[in-house]
């Protein structure tokens, strides 16, 4: 089974988190809502990866993301190791480079979106860790 290490960021402002609406032609989970992030390159730490991905996808420079969760899920012949980080949004401009859009949602609003079962479980589990 192939293992794919990934890193994602939960940016939050007040009681809302930033979610990405994936493109309909995305390689993984097309049309779903999810977090910004992606694969960890060889020789890269999860922290380095989440900072790189955030810059690539949003032109947003993370300051001090805090690691809050590591989750391993299996679907078909792929094992995904997801390292999730959280950081309060500083109001800097966001420039979307990946996906068809983004939005700010409360956790309850995010749970009502078209999201994967893995993301749903993670958001429910992480609710108290995000807003401490």
Q: Short summary of the structure?
A:
With 132 residues, the chain is an alpha+beta fold. 24% of the residues lie in helices and 38% in strands.
Name its key features.
132 residues; alpha+beta; 7-stranded mixed sheet; 3 helices
Task: Characterize the structure shown.
This protein has 132 residues and is of the alpha+beta class. It is 24% helix and 38% strand. The chain has one domain (2-130): Nucleoside Triphosphate Pyrophosphohydrolase. It has three helices and seven strands, in the order ββββαβββαα. The longest helix is centred in the C-terminal third of the chain and has 14 residues, at 117-130. The mean pLDDT is 93.
Structural class: alpha+beta
Number of domains: 1
Determine the CATH superfamily: Nucleoside Triphosphate Pyrophosphohydrolase
Q: Note the beta-strand portion.
A: 35-45%
Runs with pLDDT <50, length 5+? none
What's the pLDDT, averaged over the residues? 93
What is the oligomeric state here? single chain
- Helix % is 10-25%
- By DSSP (H or I, 4+ residues per run), the number of helices equals 3
What gap, in angstroms, lies between the N and C termini?
37 Å
CATH topology: Nucleoside Triphosphate Pyrophosphohydrolase
- Give the CATH level 1 class: Alpha Beta
Integer-rounded radius of gyration: 14 Å
Task: Give a short account of the largest sheet.
Answer: 7 strands, mixed
Topology as a string of helices (H) and strands (E): EEEEHEEEHH
**Shape estimate:** globular
> Could you give the count of β-strands?
7
Q: In the CATH hierarchy, what is the architecture at level 2?
A: Alpha-Beta Complex
């Amino acid at each position: 089974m192939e293992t794919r290490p990934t890193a994602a960021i939960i940016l939050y402002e007040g009681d809302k988190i930033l979610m990405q609406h994936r493109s309909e032609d995305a390689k993984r989970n097309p049309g779903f809502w999810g977090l910004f992030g992606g694969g960890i390159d060889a020789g890269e730490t999860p922290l380095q990866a989440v900072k790189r991905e955030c810059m690539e996808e949003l032109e947003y420079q993370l300051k001090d993301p805090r690691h809050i969760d590591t989750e391993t899920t299996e679907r078909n012949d792929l094992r995904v190791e997801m390292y999730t980080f959280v950081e309060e949004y500083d109001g800097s401009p966001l420039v979307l480079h990946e996906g068809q859009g983004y939005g700010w949602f409360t956790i309850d609003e995010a749970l009502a979106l078209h999201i994967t079962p893995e993301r749903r479980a993670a958001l429910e589990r992480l609710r108290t860790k995000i807003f401490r």
